[in-house]
Write a structure and sequence with these properties.
By secondary structure, this protein is α+β, with helices and mostly antiparallel strands. The chain has a domain of about 80 residues: Rossmann fold (3-Layer(aba) Sandwich), CATH 3.40.50.300. Helix content is about 45%, strand content about 15%. It has 4 helices and 4 strands. It has a two-stranded parallel ribbon with strand order 1-4. The longest helix has 24 residues. It is elongated, with a radius of gyration of 19 Å. It starts with a helix and ends with a helix. It holds the Pfam family ADK_lid. Its EC number is 2.7.4.3.
Length: about 120
């Protein structure tokens, strides 16, 4: 039994039917750029991104000047492993629901407002 059909069976027992699947599609290289560029000021939680929201001084918090850190799971090696697991687990489910004609593929690399618009269209 496939993952999608197993999910359908489990949900049907609870009286739930899947009638739409939103697939947020994005190239792995774009995800890598977004995730590996994240930096955090640990004590305040302020976040930075080397490309999209860089600190004034690389590696230092804008307010305190203290060093920024990168989370262990925001590294390229960890991300690669996570993406491999993600694709292995989700592709069979997306394939299953695509064959049923209920998948809306959304372009997740777009700006948040554009993705929101795509979500709204996908749910119609």
């Amino acid at each position: 039994m496939g993952k999608g059909s197993g999910l359908d069976e489990m949900l049907e027992k609870k009286g739930v039917k899947v009638d739409k699947v939103l697939n947020f599609a994005i190239d792995d290289a774009i995800l890598e750029e977004r995730i590996t560029g994240r930096w955090i000021h640990p004590s305040s939680g302020r976040t930075y991104h080397t490309k999209f929201a860089p600190p004034k001084v690389p590696g230092s918090d804008d307010v305190t000047g203290e060093p920024l850190i990168q989370r262990k799971d925001d590294t390229a090696a960890v991300l690669k492993s996570r993406l491999e697991a993600f694709h292995k687990q989700t592709e069979p489910v997306i394939d299953y629901y695509s064959k049923k004609g209920i998948v809306a593929n959304l372009h997740a690399e777009k700006a948040p407002k554009e993705v929101t618009t795509e979500v709204q269209k996908g749910l119609q």
